[in-house]
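Regression test case RT-17, inverse folding.

Input:
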């Protein structure tokens, strides 16, 4: 009887190994050989699923965005205020795994300077986060509020920028994660 292979799980394992390599060596340190060693698979297996290093790096970027979006979808039953707080605080690293994820995100941000496809994935993700923040800000104001409140876009952009700055401070150890989340929560409540 032939073995049943979960191809999606194999792809996830390889992408996770890619993220570990990026966290340790940056995107420029990625090679199919390094990722294969980290994943415990052959280079041929990686080529089978992704083809090239470029395709693997781009798949890792897309998977990172999809993972964040999946976490957001889990908040579907929460109030708009709590969902908004999730959008802006999810990037604050709470533990070593979170630090790895955020460091990988920033490696992709740096790569986006000279990599059009990565830049497009990240720009689309940021636009989506901004649009969702605007929607949640408006929803949180209730039925009597102006559905087209123009201030919501400015507030969403400020919240996301604050989250970016706080994330960097947590990454370098200048601020504790709880402090950063508390600052974001206060700003969400102010809005």
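Golden output:
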């Amino acid at each position: 009887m032939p073995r049943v292979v979960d191809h999606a799980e194999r792809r996830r394992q390889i992408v996770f190994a890619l993220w570990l390599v990026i966290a340790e060596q940056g995107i420029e340190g990625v090679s199919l050989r390094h990722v294969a060693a980290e994943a415990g698979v052959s280079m041929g297996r990686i080529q089978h699923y992704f083809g090239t290093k470029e395709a693997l790096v781009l798949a890792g970027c897309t998977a990172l965005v999809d993972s964040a979006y999946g976490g957001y979808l889990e908040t579907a039953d929460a109030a708009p205020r709590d969902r908004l707080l999730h959008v802006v605080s999810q990037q604050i690293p709470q533990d070593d795994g979170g630090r790895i994820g955020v460091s990988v995100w920033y490696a992709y941000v740096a790569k986006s300077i000279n990599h059009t496809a990565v830049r497009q994935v990240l720009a689309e993700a940021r636009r989506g986060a901004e649009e969702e923040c605007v929607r949640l800000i408006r929803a949180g104001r209730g039925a009597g509020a102006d559905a087209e409140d123009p201030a919501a876009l400015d507030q969403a952009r400020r919240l996301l920028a604050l989250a970016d700055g706080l994330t960097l401070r947590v990454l370098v150890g200048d601020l504790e994660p709880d402090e950063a989340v508390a600052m974001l929560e206060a700003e969400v409540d102010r809005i």
